[in-house]
């Protein structure tokens, strides 16, 4: 039974803790209520005080107007009119304030309206007194009447003001009594609040101790982060700076000095000191940009050269953004990039582009030679060979006949090779004009071009409905001709060639390795045949220029057809793939963007 005291002690601690929590909550609620009551009482006292002050200001303004009137009537000196003239604004200001202060008191609102009517009548009386005291319109009887009437109005105004003051004083006394009763309880609440505050101070001290430990950890991380930022600036060849546009103080990061070719903090950052590093060719433009920062509060990208103390020229790019702090100050946060390497690379790229343009011109010249100069002697060779009659061949030796045959075959192969090269070249060099076209119509055109071989092999070609797309029509037609022609060429001798063409819409994210992810939708067009197929290890090789999987004797051709297909699809920002199983057929898949 030794565990009973511990059990009782644990329960007691729990009870004490619960009671302490309830006491704390009770004291907090009472203290909050007490503070609310005190705060409300203080507001009511201040409210009554404000009304009394505004009523006094109202009376003071009318008295000033009355004094100014008397002084002007007696002396006819315009300087006495100043209090009268300003009194109207003062009266209006006090009236507006009183209207707001008494918005929740209908009785005082009614009294205020009566008071304002009396004040209007009083100012009308002032104007009549001025009128009948003027030498041009002087009327002693009317002046006396209005002066006497003004005194009566002034008494009524005082009475109305006193009435409103009395109401507010009575209301104030009532609230002061309540306020005094509430104040008498302050010591009790103060002690309670003190004890509560003491508890919170102890808890706060514990939390502060923990926060200090956390702060040390964060400071260490911040120091590491600052070092990483400094290293990042060095590695990335950029720097940061801050310009306080109100105090004109400029701060540089350490790498800013290094980019300028000097030691960190070797000079005081100022507009002039920075301009000293700018190359003379760009100094005026940079100075103008600095002035625009001061006038327009912005810094767009600016490119310029920097001349280091060792006379090395570096190319810079700078930009900045205006930031406003909580005090309303404006700080320009800027970044400088050393783009010397990129600048030199751009120069190199321009030179390479110039070389590429020259190469393209040479390629255009080659096309001209291939299409004209090379074909002319080839035509003559074929013409002269064709003129060798059978009688002439009969008197030739067997070896001569063989040579004649080989010349004829080689000339034909040369003709096909030149035509294919020209076709491949045109896919790169001709104008790429995209036109909205019906691919089904282009497929029919391709089948018409292949009618002879289709009929010869009795091929069966089935196709689903193809979409309408913006394409280069003659290139897509050539794509269909090459793919269907390829299937017909490599058909199996003992089977009727069957070619199936299907189309479906797909998302680019379904084929992330093949398709441009910036384009969301593609059309997938598949060409499936039952031909002899090929080894899948060559599915990439077959699209390479001049690559062949069979000997020239077995299957004639130049090895350019599928390379042309790949180039055409790339011109349309699409993709083409091939897959096959030997003796079972092949599948060519074309992806064209929607």
How would you sum up this structure in a few lines?
This protein has 594 residues and is an alpha+beta fold. The chain has 16 helices and twelve strands.
Can you offer a commentary on this structure?
It is built from 16 helices and twelve strands. It is of the alpha+beta class. The chain has a five-stranded antiparallel beta sheet. The chain has a five-stranded mixed beta sheet with strand order 7-9-10-12-11. Strand 11 (575-581) and strand 12 (585-593) form a beta hairpin. Helix 1 packs antiparallel against helix 2 (81-101), helix 1 packs parallel to helix 3 (106-133) and helix 10 runs antiparallel to helix 12 (398-429). The longest helix has 73 residues, at 3-75. The chain is elongated. The two termini are 85 Å apart. Residues 1-10 and 550-555 have low confidence and may be disordered.
Keywords:
594 residues; alpha+beta; five-stranded antiparallel beta sheet; five-stranded mixed beta sheet; 16 helices; 12 strands; 62% helix; disordered N terminus
């Amino acid at each position: 039974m030794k565990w009973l005291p511990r059990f009782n002690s644990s329960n007691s601690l729990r009870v004490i803790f619960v009671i302490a929590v309830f006491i704390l909550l009770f004291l907090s609620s009472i203290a909050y209520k007490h503070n609310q009551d005190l705060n409300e009482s203080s507001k009511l006292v201040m409210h009554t005080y404000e009304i009394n002050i505004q009523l006094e200001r109202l009376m003071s303004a009318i008295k000033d107007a009355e004094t100014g009137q008397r002084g002007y009537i007696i002396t006819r000196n315009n300087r006495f009119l100043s209090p009268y003239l300003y009194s109207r604004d003062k009266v209006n200001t006090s009236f507006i304030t009183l209207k707001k202060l008494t918005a929740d008191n209908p009785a005082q609102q009614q009294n205020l309206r009566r008071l304002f009517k009396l004040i209007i009548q009083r100012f009308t009386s002032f104007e009549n007194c001025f009128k009948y005291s003027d030498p041009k319109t002087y009327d002693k009887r009317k002046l006396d009447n209005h002066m006497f009437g003004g005194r009566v109005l002034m008494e009524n105004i005082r009475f109305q003001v006193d009435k409103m003051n009395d109401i507010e004083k009575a209301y104030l006394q009532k609230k002061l009594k309540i306020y005094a009763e509430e104040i008498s309880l302050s010591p009790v609440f103060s002690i309670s609040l003190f004890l509560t505050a003491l508890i919170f101070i102890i808890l706060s001290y514990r939390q502060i101790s923990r926060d200090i430990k956390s702060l040390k950890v964060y400071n260490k991380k911040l120091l590491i982060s600052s070092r990483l930022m400094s290293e990042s600036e060095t590695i990335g060849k950029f720097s940061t700076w801050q310009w306080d546009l109100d105090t004109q103080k400029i701060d540089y990061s350490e790498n800013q000095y290094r980019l300028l070719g000097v030691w960190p903090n070797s000079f005081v950052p100022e507009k002039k000191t920075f301009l000293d590093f700018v190359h003379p060719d760009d100094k005026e433009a940079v100075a103008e940009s600095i002035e625009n920062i001061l006038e327009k509060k912005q810094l767009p990208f600016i490119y310029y050269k920097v001349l280091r103390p060792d006379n090395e020229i570096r190319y810079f790019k700078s930009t900045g953004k205006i930031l406003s702090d909580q005090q309303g100050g404006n700080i320009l946060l800027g970044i400088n990039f050393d783009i010397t390497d990129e600048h030199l690379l751009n120069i190199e790229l321009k030179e390479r582009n110039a070389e590429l343009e020259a190469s393209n011109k040479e390629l255009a010249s080659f096309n001209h030679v291939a299409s004209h100069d090379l074909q002319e002697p080839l035509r003559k060779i074929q013409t002269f060979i064709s003129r060798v009659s059978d009688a002439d061949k009969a008197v030739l030796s067997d070896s001569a006949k063989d040579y004649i045959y080989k010349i004829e075959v080689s000339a034909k192969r040369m003709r096909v090779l030149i035509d294919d090269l020209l076709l491949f070249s045109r896919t790169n060099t001709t104008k790429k004009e995209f036109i909205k076209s019906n691919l089904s119509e282009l497929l029919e055109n391709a089948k018409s071009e292949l009618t002879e071989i289709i009929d010869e092999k009795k091929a069966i070609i089935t196709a689903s409905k193809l979409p309408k797309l913006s394409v280069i029509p003659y290139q897509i037609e050539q794509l269909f001709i090459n793919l269907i022609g390829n299937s017909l060429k490599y058909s199996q001798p003992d089977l009727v060639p069957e070619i199936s063409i299907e189309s479906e819409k797909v998302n680019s994210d379904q084929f992330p390795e093949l398709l441009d992810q910036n384009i969301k939708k593609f059309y997938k067009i598949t060409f499936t045949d039952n031909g002899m197929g090929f080894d899948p290890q060559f599915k990439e090789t077959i699209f390479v220029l001049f690559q062949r999987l069979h000997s020239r004797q077995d299957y004639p051709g130049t090895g350019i057809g599928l390379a042309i297909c790949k180039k055409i699809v790339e011109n349309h920002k699409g993709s083409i793939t091939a897959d096959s199983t030997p003796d079972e057929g092949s599948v060519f898949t074309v992806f064209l963007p929607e």
